[in-house]
Known about the structure:
mainly beta; Glutaredoxin; 4-stranded mixed beta sheet; 18 strands; DUF1223; DUF1223 domain-containing protein; Thioredoxin-like_sf
Amino acid sequence: MQGFRGNSGGPGLMRALSTRPLSRRMLQGVFCLAIVALPVQVLGGERVKSQITHVLELFTSQGCSSCPPADKLLTEFADQPHVLALSYHVDYWDYIGWRDTFGSDHNSERQRAYAKAFANKMIYTPQLVINGLHDIVGSHGRKIERLMKKSRLPAAASPVKVTIRRVGDSIHISAGGIKVEPGERKPMLVLVNFADGAEVKVDRGENAGETLVTTHPVRGWQLMGMVGEEGMQVDMPVSSVMPDGEETYGCAVLLQAVRPDGSPGAILAATQMEIDPD
């Protein structure tokens, strides 16, 4: 694939294989979801953000000059009590002079899956996906706010219940209350691991000389399974979301509908847990 630039100041574009089916990895992703009594609850060394109404997934790159304004805007949204903000750094701009320190093809794969869901012929940065339902240029703040007003997760009012809590050296995730109509696909439970944030000085490429700030850069994501009416219980080691133990890490859990063609649909519930190093 070969990338090409739009008008000055516009998003970077990359031709997408929009007819590419979802890979086994996409259908094996994991989302961490939790709903608790307060928007942010402190449990020991963990902070759980509950009653999520908006999941903002930004596809970005340190090698794209159009992305820093979107990165900055996502940082502002991340501070809101009911917003889960995630930065998926893609790898397809690495060829123009700078290798993104958080970039991965796995993140690019999730973006391609959304391109299939939205019937987009192109993938681009910065792209923001709101609640799995809408995509928009990630630096268009006013338009993003208007779409957020139109799209809200039911949060505490939803019969879908997903929780996350730490039990010693383990993390326990529970999902239930799902109702699957005949002929519908079961929703998928996806776990996303992220770092708290980072500042990166870029030496080459379009952003050479700039120090870029990113919020919740995704370090990995995986599908934990498909959730039926019987629900799902998952236990995993804390170390799986704290790779080095030297900085704050976290996990986001999303319960996401699956479209008839297998591509990701609306996010039904979500939460995040941040864990400080011991």
